[in-house]
Amino acid sequence: MNRKIGRFVIPSIWSFRAKFVLVVGGAVLFDLLVSGGLALWNVQRLSRDATSEVGQGLERASQDYIQSYADSTAARVGLLLNQVHSDVKTLAGVLQAQIDHPNRNDAIGEALARSEPGAVKLTYDPKGHWAQNLPGSTSVISVWGYLLDQNHQPLPDVEKDIETSTVVDLVAPNLLKNGYSKLQMYYIGPKERPIFRTVPYTAQAQTFDRLYPGHNEANFWDFFFPGLYESWQQWARQPATRPVADDITQTAPYTDAITGKLIVSFFNPLWSPDRRDVAGIAGADITLDQLAGIVESVKVADTGFGFLTMSNGNVVAINHAGEKIIGLRSSNDTGDKGVTGLDRSFHNSTQKALATLPLDRDGVIQHISLDEQGEKIPYLVVVKQIAPTNLWVSGPVQKEAMSLGIVVPEREIYASLFSAQEEISRATNRILLYQILAISISLMIVTAAVFAVSKRITSGISALASAARRIQAKDYSVRVDIASRDEVGEAGVAFNRMAEDISFHTENLEMLVDERTKEIAEAKEEISVLNTQLKSENIRLGAELAVAQRIQLMVLPRQNELAAIEQLEIAAFMRPADEVGGDYYDILQDGKRLKIGIGDVTGHGLESGVLMLMVQSVARALQEAGETDPAKFLNDLNRTIYKNIERTKTDKHLTLAFLDYDGERLTLSGQHEDLIVVRQGGEVERIETADLGLPVGLDSDISQFVDTRDVTFGSGDMIVLHTDGVTEAENRQGELYGIERLCKSARDLYGGSAQDVMNGILENLMTYIGSQKIHDDITLVVMRHR
User: Fold this and answer.
1) Ordered DSSP codes for 350-405
2) Which of 124, 323, 595, 631 could pair with 706 as two cysteines, CB 3.0-4.6 Å apart?
3) Rg for the chain (alpha carbons), in Å?
4) What would the pLDDT profile of 683-694 be if each residue is shown by its tens digit?
5) Nearest to 78 by CA among 405, 300, 390, 385
6) What is the pLDDT of residues 1-14, one digit of tens each?
7) Alpha-carbon separation of residue 477 from 448, 454, 468, 495, 510 (angstroms)
8) Phi, psi of 757 (to 5 degrees)
9) Strands 123-125 and 130-132, how do they pair?
10) pTM value?
């Protein structure tokens, strides 16, 4: 009895054809599925291995780059501190030699006192109850009331200390002028005679009276630095008690009484000839801006940033973007002591991961997650410790090791890794798709062939069965030799063709896997080469920009040059939009002749910064060559710059104006922004320069366009010079700051010192800008006639 399934009739007793189809078809299907499955599994495994290998390589390279960046930045901070240490030790060495050789000390002190009487001659202030030398000296000497006799003259031992410290006037100016920039250098006497001699000259005692009432009634060291002097005395008795084997003692950042800036002080104690007691100190101050400048210049990937922190977690330096990301909150210590510091601790961070961040894991990559708008963003952090120093905060001196940290989002530093992984994944998916299609097509062909030959079974079925078993054993080289030309013979021919097809597809599948494996290996090698090139290019570009920025800052006028101008009080500020700016300002002095220049190169960045350095060099050369004609000076400078622009094939040029001042007459020449003059009484006058020249570098000869104009500049008058980075700065609504706001700000601030006016204008400008990006270089120069 037969059963009917669909259109097929299957006998109740299985026919030979049914058995043939079942056995051969099942064997071929099984073989294809196993072979195809193994091939797919191998491809996926190869893809995972390649992804893992590429990922590990790129991850190691990225982390090595961050660690190298942290090492180099920490080295820059350490170099700054070492240079300041060296200068303080130099000054201390000179003073210690004076103390150790009393006879030579007396001779040198008397000689210096005779050559510059103003350096030791003091005037008594009955209101403040202190004595101080008059302005005009190299240094300022402050002698507190309890160090004066009944006639308001220094006690004999105090007078001797004044002569001993006179040597500071010989050494300190050169140390301030050379080496790393320092705010001031000074000598302070021992606890029983704490006279204060500081270079450069400032209104020292007057400032202390204003800010710290009652300081003259208490001992200087106990009032301003409690516990510090006692630590040094302990060192004298037991040198091994020093926390760090060095005499240099550093303070935590605090607000300077004289300048109002956040500074760090470095003290080197002086010892008595028998080395059993303290005989005073030599010291120097640097502004926190110098340390912050190194840290704020850190740029890793797009938004990576750096920070400098004390061991207690107090952040000394960080840029505004980084401070916002890690959620720092700062508060100023407003105690009644002379040193008021900044409290901006990681422990107060709104980010829990940073509040508990270990700072003692030197050079180790740490993974943290920070909250950004409700989302957890993974970051990498590496902390590098700076060489330890002796630190005073309040009380005994302690050991301190500051740390330099680098923070960068993982999505930015691993961008190339994610891209490579995605590309490998896409290639793997393509291979898998091709293999599945090949297996499906092979299966269809084999199935059709089995059904075709099953109809032609003859007596040679045994040979076909044997051959089928060999096919099942993956011997695709088998062939059936049937001599007959009947249906069985034809079945043998069909079987042979089937075996050839299977062999062909199997070999092609292996070749396809080999080709894709080779492509993945080549892609991995290309990614590695590109990553190496990218790392090298980043290092090269960073080094070039750092050198250009340092050169640009080196040629700017120093504070002591500005302070040396007797009739004028000058304050200046420049902030580049990029690492290297295109703004120019300079104050050149040759005897009584003074030349003040200000200019703005088109654009900003490296090319603009180089052109600015060319202008500074040519202007200095012309000034030193004795060129006094303003029009000829400007035309000669233009001709030189024009030739350099042609040689370098750049399209840059600049607006440029000069003010020539000989002590009586002020002459304006060149084309730049309006000159702002605030007269006594607060009247503001704007002087246009459009008809006084032509942009420098546009034409080889601009003599026919250059003109001059005399400007009245008397006692009490104030001049404000600026670049368009000030007036074209935008607020959040895209509105410009404008010349009118600048004039109003200058008029409102008139009456203060040049430095106060400049600081006030900048504070007003930055408040107006807010969180907007600064698109152009900002330069501001304020001159006040004394």
Assistant:
1) S-HHHHT--S--BT-EEEEEEEETTEEEEEEEEEEEPPPEEEESSSS-EEE--EEE
2) 631
3) 41
4) 999 999 999 999
5) 385
6) 454 444 444 444 45
7) 20, 21, 12, 12, 16
8) -65, -45
9) antiparallel
10) 0.48
